[in-house]
TrEMBL record:
Keywords: Cell membrane, Membrane, Transferase, Transmembrane, Transmembrane helix. This is Phosphatidylglycerol--prolipoprotein diacylglyceryl transferase. The chain crosses the membrane at residues 12-36, 48-71, 91-108, 177-195, 207-224, 264-282. The gene is lgt. The lineage of its organism: Bacteria, Bacillati, Bacillota, Bacilli, Bacillales. The keyword NAD does not apply. PANTHER family: PHOSPHATIDYLGLYCEROL--PROLIPOPROTEIN DIACYLGLYCERYL TRANSFERASE, PROLIPOPROTEIN DIACYLGLYCERYL TRANSFERASE. Pathway: Protein modification; lipoprotein biosynthesis (diacylglyceryl transfer).
Length: 314
């Protein structure tokens, strides 16, 4: 007998608490803990990261919603109030990152910190949050891939019953793309932990490595999904994108698309990978990344006493 998870964790009177919210809240707290822990090595107050979380989370939600609405405008232009009803679904992770990064940049500048030094510290928090947050999609039975057989999930992937059962949606089993991305992000988190202790890492490069790793996984996993934001591109361009994804056809079939022929997240993933690599090369050649990850981090608005303490305690 299949057992499906109830998306509602509990209710208190008229207040309904969903597992999705609990999971996202847990992801934010784990990310905060990682940033605070690493920040202590650089004598940065935990309050700095707590305030960043309070600013970053709402900014990420707004960015995620605006990004989604912008690419699905036809579905919202005749009902503008629906834009604000995010509990009906419709957010995008790349939009969340844009919103959080813009808010973070403004916050760092006001606090007198170098943008690249702080986002390096936050990179593991971002990928850890995404790793945990994908399980909210699992509970909601959303953001899955195309149809698969039960035997594929049980015999080929050797998944436990509680995952297989949750992937049975409206009479059909589906790819657990949430799981693929969560595991990819777990490996990425371990990679970032290793990289940040390497002496060759310069300021901004851990953040770039996060984007490169995440975007590689997102490009290939996105091709399995059936709910991608998409657009119609020339056939030669769609063929190019399909060619880049073609190694996946050795194992899986691509997910169907309701409209368009190029997935926006896949295109954005490729552009981010290219931009991140170019950024690392240019910053090194121009000498803009002279600071190493392990160098002291001092706010330009710190007092002389703070600067002396930070310089001698790492």
């Amino acid at each position: 007998m299949a057992y499906l998870l109830d998306p509602i964790a509990f209710s208190l009177g008229f207040i309904t608490v969903r597992w999705y919210g609990i999971i996202l809240g847990s992801a934010a707290l784990v990310g905060l803990w990682l940033a605070v822990t690493e920040g202590k090595r650089f004598k940065i107050s935990p309050d700095f990261f707590m305030d960043l979380l309070l600013i970053g989370v709402p900014s990420a939600i707004i960015g995620a919603r605006l990004y989604y609405v912008a690419f699905k405008w036809d579905a919202y232009k005749d009902n503008l109030l629906e834009i604000f009803q995010i509990w009906h679904g419709g957010i995008a992770i790349y939009g969340a990152l844009i919103g959080a990064i813009v808010a973070g940049y403004i916050y760092f500048k006001r606090k007198g910190y170098n943008f690249w030094r702080i986002v390096d510290i936050c990179a593991p928090s971002l990928i850890a949050g995404q790793m945990i947050g994908r399980w909210g999609n699992f509970v909601n039975q959303e953001a899955h891939g195309g149809p698969v057989t039960e035997s594929f999930l049980r015999s080929s992937l050797h998944l436990p019953n509680w995952i297989v059962d949750q992937m049975y949606i409206n009479g059909q089993y589906y790819h657990p793309t949430f799981l693929y991305e969560s595991l990819w992000n777990l490996v990425g988190l371990l990679l970032l932990f290793w990289l940040r202790r390497r002496p060759f890492m310069r300021a901004g490069e851990l953040f770039s490595a996060y984007f490169i790793w995440y975007s590689i996984g997102r490009f290939f996993i996105e091709g399995l999904r059936t709910d991608s934001l998409a657009f119609s591109a020339p056939e030669w361009f769609a063929s190019l994108m399909n060619g880049l994804w073609s190694p996946m056809t050795l194992l899986f079939e691509a997910g169907s698309m309701d409209y368009g022929n190029v997935r926006i997240s896949q295109l954005l993933a490729i552009l981010i990978i290219i931009a991140a690599v170019v950024l690392i090369v240019v910053r090194r050649k121009k000498g803009w990344s002279a600071e190493r990850y392990s160098d002291p981090i001092v706010s330009s608005k710190a007092t002389a006493a703070d600067t002396a303490e930070a310089g001698g305690g790492i």
